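User: Some background: our group keeps a shared notebook of sequences we're curious about, and every so often someone picks one and asks for a predicted structure to add to the entry. Today it's my turn. The entry only has the sequence so far, pasted here. Could you supply the structure so I can complete it?
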Amino acid sequence: MKRFGRFSLLLLALLGAGALLAGVGLVVQGISVHQDPSTVEIRLARAARHLLIPRRARGLPNPVPASTEALASGRAHFADHCATCHGNDGKGNTIYGRRMFPRAPDMTVAATQELADGELFWIIENGVRLTGMPGFVDDDPANDESSWELVVFIRSLPRQTPAELAEM
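Assistant: Of course. Here's the predicted structure to add to the notebook entry:
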């Protein structure tokens, strides 16, 4: 019992020191969007996002087959509504994407591509609080198809050709 008490006290002291250092860092550096998030911030944010997307949503399969038509429709929708922040190539390297905090994510990297189709759909439909990602949920389930087509397109981003980029 005595050992547990010492361990708890040590853990509490370490957490307090960490909170103090984080607070000092914020006071010294401020909350500017020009600072890149730390590795710890990124990992915590991704873990929180995963936990906060409902399990039933994560398991949703994409009902839209990855056809040429779905890809073209998703590409057109992305170019019109998403590329301002995410860029035509999905890398987020736009005037808006670079100035957001957190930055608009590079959707071609594993951290995004490894998300389940249901997770991508849920993010498109519901947005992500405290980021620049708005939610586009529509009360008409018939409109869900365009969000699923976006999922098809997002999956294609790492393999996008120069001709497809030029088309956008």
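Suggested note for the entry: The mean pLDDT is 86. The radius of gyration is 20 Å.
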